[in-house]
């Protein structure tokens, strides 16, 4: 009877005795994805005004950070395939739950755990300000979990579909932009509505959705050369290779 074999890092193209460019890019993209996801969740409570000549739109401060998550998943989809990208997306959804739990702990542990209390010079005024900021963060984090889970899944599936459909046609730039832009519009409509309905007027919500879409489309356009660069590093190509 044949003994079952175990899967090692080497079997997966990940040597264990040295650092390769391919392994580095995978861990870099995964790290970029997680860091951007966390920062987007925490900083989304702050609203900024972007002035594009006569057009002024409102944008949550976490929008650019969130846009970088799509850069990461597109590179992973291109080099390692849909399975790896979906693993990163599902891990990201779980991390949003971890963020939510840790924020709730930081805000309310003293109220529910008898042996924990505030210490040092932490005042009631500081606690009130802390709760005001991060209570809003909890709502945006929940909104982000819903919007992110659906839109990131759509991004990976659209990208992979176009990758298979356009094999050999040098259209990485097209699938990167189309998958990101479509999923970002989807994300913005869900996230802004869930996060700010009842706390902002519908006029402001409309401006926030428009602002997110404008900024995310710009980020998606600008990040295209970075997708090629990271793909080329991972695959050992010339840095200026725009095939694929």
UniProtKB/TrEMBL annotation:
TM annotation in the entry: 23-45, 51-72, 84-107, 142-160, 181-198, 204-230
Q: Could you tell me where this protein is found in the cell?
A: Cell inner membrane
Which cellular component, as a GO term, is one annotated location? plasma membrane
Report the membrane topology from the UniProt record.
Answer: Multi-pass membrane protein
Q: Which molecular function terms from Gene Ontology are attached?
A: transmembrane transporter activity
Q: Name one Pfam family in it.
A: Vut_1
Q: Which UniProt keywords apply?
A: Cell inner membrane, Cell membrane, Membrane, Transmembrane, Transmembrane helix, Transport
Q: What is its main location?
A: membrane
What role does this protein play? Involved in the import of queuosine (Q) precursors, required for Q precursor salvage.
Q: Which family does it belong to?
A: Belongs to the vitamin uptake transporter (VUT/ECF) (TC 2.A.88) family. Q precursor transporter subfamily.
Put simply, this protein is called Probable queuosine precursor transporter
Organism of provenance: Maricaulis maris (strain MCS10) (Caulobacter maris)
